[in-house]
Amino acid sequence: MPLSPDPYNLIISGIGGQGNILLSRLVGRLMFRAGYQVSIGETFGAAQRGGGVFSGVRISSKRLYGPVVPQGAGSMIISLEPLEALRMISGYGNPGVKALVNSEGIHPVAVLSQKASYPSDEAMSAAIHKATDKAWLFNATKIALELDAPIAVNIVMLGGLVATGALPLDADEVADEVKASVPPHLAELNLTAYRRGMQAVAGA
Amino acid sequence: MAAIDKYEPGTSHFLLGNEAIARGALERGVNFVTGYPGTPSSEIVPALAQCTQKGKLHAEWSTNELAAVEGAAAAATAGLLSLSAMKNAGLSLALDFITHLSYTGLGPKGGACLMVVCDDPHGHSSGDETDSRWLARFATAPMVEPMTGQQAVELVKYAFDLSQKHSAFVFYRGYTRLSHASNPITMGELPTGAPKASSDSSVSLNPYLSIDKHQDLLAKMEAIRAEFEQCPFNSYQGPEKPELVVVASGAGHLAAAEALETLGLEERVGLLSLATIWPLPTAWVVEHLKNAPQVLVLEEVDLFMEAAVKEALVDNGLGSVAVYGKGSGHIPMSGEMTPDRALSALARIFDMKAPARDEAYERLVQQEVAPLVISRGLSWCAGCPHRASFWALDKAIKADARDAYVTGEIGCSTLDVFPEGKAQIKLLHSMGSGTGTAAGLGQLKPFGYTQPVVAVCGDSSFFHSSVPRLINAVYNQADMLQIILDNSATAMTGFQPHPGTGNTAENTPAPRLDVAKVCESIGCQVTIADPFEVRATTKVMRELMGKPGVQVLILRRACELVRMKAAKSHPYRITIDQEKCKGAECAVCSRDFRCPALYLDPATGKTAFKEQICSGCGICVEICPFKAISKQEND
Q: What ipTM, to 2 d.p.?
């Protein structure tokens, strides 16, 4: 299946510890298995400590691309946090970019220390919608907390991604991959998180 | 993630670059693996430690990089295949040994040794972006560098062959965009059979007489250069009569390929890609450049390849060929190689317009998106003992009022100097440097120096390199307080075990070295405190600060992430009494202490907390001046 655009540059952003690396590898593995060339670029290490983190997942039916996404060349931004979505749009946005965003904000420490103020939910939502071709915002954290599994936000977002239809991902194959990627006793919980994310975006 | 030895030959799996390096080493039959954690190199040793087999493969976290390279080199002299992994900063520590190892080689037993050094161009997770390729030239040693994940696997085998053939260790350079990139990798066969190790006592491997050995080494490097002329991982793609040749290495290769595609220059420009970094295969390079009117070099970080290419051109009477790159200003002198940088350099040379973002969209972003984007600085995790330790240090220094001076080093304590830290550390360089610099300052009393001197180090860096500096302080009778933040982990790089944790890289039990006993045996006065008992810790810091001799204060509490991994539950449930909380009038817990879980709720004007971030550590109960926060034990 041809990708549009090709290479398809998926940016997955969030805060260290939210599980964006697992999410990027899940998507990478699924797209590789579907026959595409995939490169994932990550930076981690110091960035884990409360800083913003992001991965670039570059998918192509033509050839292997390097892991660094060129500026302004994002195809879709998946962000586990809305301020980070805006940061990614600033760097990688373009008139055709799409965004799937967890609307639950996490305050940078500079906000706690009163050196900066965190934008309102309304301002962030408006800017995200304005600067993207299409955007899906929903509270994935709330869903994860309802399941008593705050760290499952990334899997809720994966469900959301499948529901957007942006990538040729088969819902059942994704579910199998989720099941295979987590310890057996957490499989049911993660599958529920995955389905709840799918429903949230499909119903939005 | 399965252990990398579980993948069947012929199948493809998604591997991190560092795992690809490890898989290549396994496929070539590596036996002895050492290293010290450092981003972006840290995943190589654990990937191999998951596959260890007695008598076939050993993998260890060494105490530091010097011990790591010495262990690996020694195993090679006993006929084994060895690998040592570290980041660029760690290689600097190991250089004294390495420069001699070049002279001696690996001896007659047929062993081989790779020194894998991973650089961090752009300093994503490092205090510097030093380019370790210069150290290959400095140490007169061969170096290779892969361009893709799959090549990383194959190049490891090539480098082992080279090492074995020439009885020379080989530098293998990784970099962030390789080590921390993931790609599908096709697996090769894994060897069977176990080696037998022994030392040949009929020869002495030493660098003397060094002038003779240096000459032998230079001859060996020429033999290696000749081999590099034929290296199958160096390639040329492009027209026979190119208008320009791009010379690329490492990340430069894929960046160049993408930029040429974007600008439609593939038919006009050649791409000469080198996996052999040093020595330069001069004849092969000159052969491809002699018909090119101009050259662009794409590499990271410094102009290492560019300088070598210019030398080669001049030496071969081709000094008139225009060479673009960092020297000409087409590529910035610092930072990583990206497709954007390659694109902009090529567009400038060919006088083309580089594709840019739609103008109206750019305006929209600048006006409506960028103003909302505030920075998100690094900070200690919720529940981190360091936040409490530095809080206490801040209080103690203020109360002491003698302008105490704090020296620090590399690790999670480094976050103190970031914008959201407590800004206590005023002198910070390398692993363990807090101790060495404090020992210097602690001897300045005769020069009128009156400030109390306080050094900070972590427990892993204590063993890594603080100990000899602490001995220096005791021996030379410095006056200083050494604070050891003992969180039972090499936390910053991913919780690797060290000599104080009681286990090994292979997750087997090990003798547990006691930080306090080590300090006492050196002759330090040792006090131990819990940083979460903030008032007591502040008091003891005040007592020890400026006392004569070398005082050691061990602040002992496990890293919250390590604790959470083992306990899987939070110790306390936190409640905030909205009556007692003074909100914005006080804000000590959020504005000053800066626990990431606490924030001023604009709706109520009082402190609230984020359940998904709170670790339930309960330290905020100690911090709140109005006793508004309380904790209940979790069941």
A: 0.95
